[in-house]
Amino acid sequence: MSTEEILFWKVFRNKFILNEIFKQIHNNEWVEYDEPNKYNAYNRCKFGDTHSLRVMIKNNLLPLIKDKIKHGDHIKIDYNSIKDLFLKLSKSQQQQQQQQQQQQQQQQQQQHQHQHQHQHQQQNNNISYSNNNNKYKDQDYLEIIELLMKHRRDEFEIVDLIKVAVKTCSPDVIRLLVNEPYSVIIYPTTFQYAIENSNLETIKEIINLEPINFNNYGIQIINEEFKRKSLSIAAHRKSLKTTITEFIFNNPSLYSIPPPLSLKNKNQQSQQSQQSKNKRLKTSETLKSNLKNNNNNNNNNDDDDDDNSVQEEIKYEYIQLVEFLKLKSTNLLQSIMELDIVIGRPKKKLNSFIKMYHPYDRLQVDIKILIKYGTSMSDQTKKNILDKMNKIDSNKQKGFNKLKELRKLVVIEFPKQRNFYFYYWKAYSEKINEIGKVPQKSISNPDGEDFFQYLNNEYDDEEEDFEEFEQEEQSSLEIFNNNNNNNNNNNNNNNNNNNNNNNNNNNNNNNNNNNNNNNNNNNNNNNNNNNNNNNNNNNNNNNNNNNNNNNNNNNNNNNNNNNINNINNNNNEEQSEEEGYEDDDDNNNNEEGEDGDNDEEVNNEGEKETINNLDKLLAEIEESDSGSDRDIENEVEEETINKKIFINSFNKFRKPSVYDISNRYSDIINSYLKAIKECNIEKLEEIDKQNPNFRLDLSRYHYFQLPKVEADIIKIWNYFNETSFRQFRANSTNFIEFLSSVTDVIQPIRLHIKMLVNSLLRKLELLLFDTLFSKKFNVFELLFKSFSFTLKSFFEVEEQELLSQEKVVFNSKGKLIQFENKHFYQIVRLIDLVVDRFNRGKVQKLYGNNPPHRVIINYLYDQILRIEGIAIHHLELVRSIVPEELLTPLCEVYRVFFYLNIRSPKLTKYIIDRPGIDTFMYSSVDYTENYNCNEPTLNGYEDIGFDIRKHLNLDIFTYDYILGREYVPNNNNNNNNNCYNNYKKRYINQFDTILKELMKQLSFDICKNFKDRDRIVDGQDFFNLSLNADLKYSLAIGRKDLFWELLDWIQQYINKNEKLIKYQVYQFNSPYESLLPTGTLYSNVKIIKKELPPPPPSTSTSKTTTTTTTNEIKILKIDNFEKPIPNESPVKIDWNGNKLIEPFKPVLKLINSFKFLEDVLDSICRVMDVNEIQRFIQYHFFETNFQVVIYSYLVFMNRNDVLSFLLNNYNIEYDGFPSFSPERNYSQYLECKFIFENHFEKVKNISRLNVEWCERRDLDFPFMLLNDFVEHLCKEKNIDVYHQFIGDDLPIRNAAIKETIKTIKKKLDASIDEDEEDGDIENFACILKSQKHKVSLIKSIVEQSDTQQYFKSAWHEILLEFKEKRKNDEINSPFIESLENPFLQSFIYGDIKTCDIILKYYPNQFKITANSITKALKLEKIHIIKYYYKVDNCKHLINNFKNDNNLLKHLKNQLSNHPIYKYHLTWL
Predict the structure, then answer these.
(1) Burial of 1005 per CB tally in 10 Å (0-12, 13-18, 19+)
(2) Mean pLDDT of 1248-1254
């Protein structure tokens, strides 16, 4: 046997050592979490102490659940735990998980590709992926449900299980429960709830199980009451509105058609006759068949119904117009409209109802809906519109464009439809003479879909002021309408000319063609021009409409007779080239190169382009065309998962309908997009050849649908590459979107751009900056490696914007803002690329000491810090690539935060949990609920909240301090052959060193030195909040040693700063006074005296002798624990005992204390053992009721081990039992079981507990009354009572005294802490410090002899009133009938186990009352009523439903009128 094995068995057989080992395993937090907010005191719990089904389901502890069911262990089952269990079988949840798994697989594949491609990749640099996929299958969860139904049905079927399954969209659960052997009932209201809220699959499952439910219970869930409102219910859903409504409409057995509203005003007999014959308005063929089937069903129902009059009383429900208009199905809208069952009026004018992207059939329905519901017009006008629409529909002429003519009809007849004419003009380049000028485009305010700049899926942001934009847009359209009075639409035989106009209907142009590349000067005036229209050899329309407000422009046309409708953003000839590019990109406008579509590189960088002011303004309108796209996005009916993409985002991640808007594009663009998708290179060449001026001018939301095969994508890429991407010269946004689409499939390292068209090439640096700024790293990498950049002039302008970009590090929920780890190696590759470019170029000569490469590298370096899962060796890899002179040495809060997070998320958790952080985030101007390190620093009144930047010393928290490592000898290595193995890396500074420095700077220093510290927490007590946060944090990360250090520091601070403490407590009924002589602790508690060290000697000036004095203090000693007994607080009222009378003297002393917050006490009682709890109590051994406070928290957590210790050593007083009401999230059953089995004598007289508790309070109350009286009168809310008391009118003063005493007594009996209600500003200590005049005046009046006498008489009178009220309450509302007694409380909340154990220990002392039945049914707790309906379960009750006829009658009456349970009464 080896030495190690011998030692193992020695340790294993030593019980003491083994217990210590297990204790350390249990107490220490050995799990490292990837998120700071995952650290908490609730992470670890012994299996034996785990009772919550919800916790076990959440942590996938299915074997533990099975084991507890098998052995009969208690399982706490409630609604939320059942819901969580059913969610594991939710079909909607599974669909989301499948999508997320697919996304994870794609990410892993991309990460794998990145790792193999990067030249610095090493095996130990892999960033790990966490696989959170559930290891259990649906069958495993169904097995758990079966076990619970078999063995714990009374505990499990505490809610309507079918309704919960419906809510969670779990049809498999419904199938299991409704079928044999469980046969759970389906109520009609549950099926109606499914129609209102569930998904289609769940609804179908219920319909399939309807026959089984009818055979079991005789309940018809698809009854006439349901049918008459089913269509209305479905149409009023919030989601899946169209899907569910369409399903019901296509199944006539599920609905009855309401009488048409047009017949509603006729007499009832005529309406019934009309309904029975089913004479409806003309409907579609589908509707006619549905009506026929529906009539048959109705007739059958009428035959089966014995009382037709009852059925006639069931009201029909109609569909509200506002919900009807939200339906997406054209056929459904048409059919419902023809049924005439839509009621209501539009809340606002339907001026945005008809959309240009609607197809032909939908547009027809739109017009009919608008005629019927939207506008007020004469019957003749309506008839004329319908006749015109029918004429368009019946036109069979070849080449007749029905869609265009129908759209034109909309423009003419409904001119107020928002932007419809504008989009018509764009689509057809045609002005309608009947309407006149094109109206200005109405622009919606930008939506707030993506809050942060880097979250934006859009490439460009609209930064123009809305009102200014409207003015520019209006002026552009006025120019257009004024300059184009003769509008002709010419089409060639191939219908290509109109499509090649690129949404421009300006036919009054001067177009000169020069096949020899001669320059032609066109001098055009703003208002009146004589124009000619000439066609080139290719029969292409070429429009040149130049409106120059400044100078005559020179325009060079090449031999391809290019269309001069490309838009340039410059509006001034003298504008510099760089400024022009900046404006161009910022405003997201198109530009035209100097030579139009010249594919050659620009040689003369100083050349100016001609500028067309009209075209520029029109371009702004085109490029800001996002309002309609948002409308399209809202058209999506189904709920979809749209994952937020922070890096390399583009339109792929938007809802599909956003980019499926081809109806707004011309035919030639649609053909081109189709050719791209199908990799039809021949078609692309054909279109480009026939249309030399062709441009891909698409929506900013357009998503390029590429071929599915990678080889085909390469072909598409090569084609555009050969043409220098001239198709995108009109719109750089579309160019970036295309590059994003391609690089999403093919890594940018495999691609290269040969050449770009002039207009794109001159914007290259601008595009480079924007792709970097918006974190489109795929496109940035492709551009950067394909071209050479000077960068100097550009980055002088843009450097600050890039560096000042938001730096949000976490949100209000404590969630870090991080990027997926799949991007790590790409960013490293980019850094390597920029560094290589820096090293190869003559950077120092060009830029000096601040090259733009530094800006790019530092920006990328900051992004790497955000990567999830990044470790120190990854960061060391990055820093080894970057030259030291390129990495900014300054360490800002942003970097410090992520350095700390890389070291350990425990460190960043400390920062996130600082009090006042949330206040700072909510006061943020641009990034509410998020901590932005670049948030402007505020001063003055607005400067509130915890701003880390003000308190963190960045000179200390450097990279080397946090993450610096050094080599140390590796003593564990036995191989001395390799010198590298003899050393290992170790952090220079230990974790505790960094943590304690954080605590010092962000907590202790502020508590001790910061004058306006309370301003950080908006006027609350920062000292208390900060140290509570520190205590909670130490327990959250499993550091009890740190907790005790903090507690000692707090005690020392309180002793040294007595006058600064804001929280005071009394000493009566303290742990010291409550010690039981029979307890083991009693004999160990001692009060000893100690002499303090003498102070420095003081010499009197009048005497030659020196006197030295010593002080004695009393010390509490419990075993090895010693603590000074606290002195009375110096902040007090100096009552004159000689002026006070019995029973108000002596006034109880107040001592300073530290106020623990609830979540801190919760953490303490959750993680500490018996000895640690006792140690904690000893710190507060003289504070009133402190042992009771600890007991209440332990009861809530069912800590029976510690509860026994407290009950054996302290006198724990009960004001009622159980300690908490059933609605609180704890187990009443476990408390009852523990107390009944171990300490029953404490609660034996259960009906008298509250009375006895109040009587004890009566004895203590007079000694606190005077202090409480002063505090009450000094509060701002009681200012009127204060003035009544200090006034000279004696009756008014006496009335104020009596009313105040009564109020204070009521709050004391109700255990209401007035300080918690009013906050820290108005607690007793603060009042004594801030309102000395008030306190002094009240004290002087109270100490008067006549006032003392009235206090005494008033108190005796009030005491008699309270005692009399208690007696009357016992007589009028006896304990046995009170809904507050423990049995009826548990009965009302449906807790069968608790009711049974109470009856076991208190036989024949409780009964079921009529009120409790009413309350239980109101909470839908039918299961407990059915349980006690059985006589065998009522053995220990005074009454039951068999011997109490009044109770049974009340039950039947309540059930027959209950909206759910009235359908099934056969069990009675």
Answers:
(1) middle
(2) 90
